[in-house]
Amino acid sequence: MKVETKHFGELDVEEKDIIFFENGLIGFDELKRFVILLPESDIPFRWFQSLETPDIAFVIINPLLILSDYKVKITKVDMASLQADSIDDLEIYSIVTIPDNINEMTINLIGPIILNSLKGTAKQIIIDNSNYGIKYSLINALY
Amino acid sequence: MLIITRKIGEVISIGDDIEVKVIEIKGKQIRIGISAPNEVRIYRKEIYLKIIEENKLAANINPEDLDKIRSIWKKNKS
Fold it and tell me: Could you give the angle at the alpha carbon of A93 between the alpha carbons of A88 and A97, nearest 5°?
């Protein structure tokens, strides 16, 4: 199917690449369909494009690349709603926030996206754990 | 919203599986104990609101940002 995007023009998206959030993103209930674009293969950041709203896209990254011991609790209910048979089917992504000053770039460790890559289902979960912050500085982690 | 008054040590049951107990009151703070099945997510409401806010900030992105990220990432990796 053809999809209009603000930054990448018109894209040809296959059904199998569509990621479906049954409950949308937190605060964006109506945004249920996304696609991961990999415009850059040399860096681990991915572009996460909304299919319902061309203007809306996020940058995401696997948080384990930043914090190798990052742990989240996935419940049986999470597994069921993601239609996942095994934890191994799941991938985790953090949403990156990029302010005007790129050095203040952060990732959200308390609202990760859990994706069942086999079924294309996903949900954003909340981790209420004081060990993790909503604005975890990437620069501090890199240097 | 159902409003109930409780004393320290008293419990509120929600459905068959959830209990909320008043543990302690200290000045303006109340310590609450909650038992619920594993599946039920329990979190402070302001966390939920913070995530909504952060999602909104994160949605303001430009492709130029990816170029900037690349230069920082590569600078670090070399």
Answer: 175
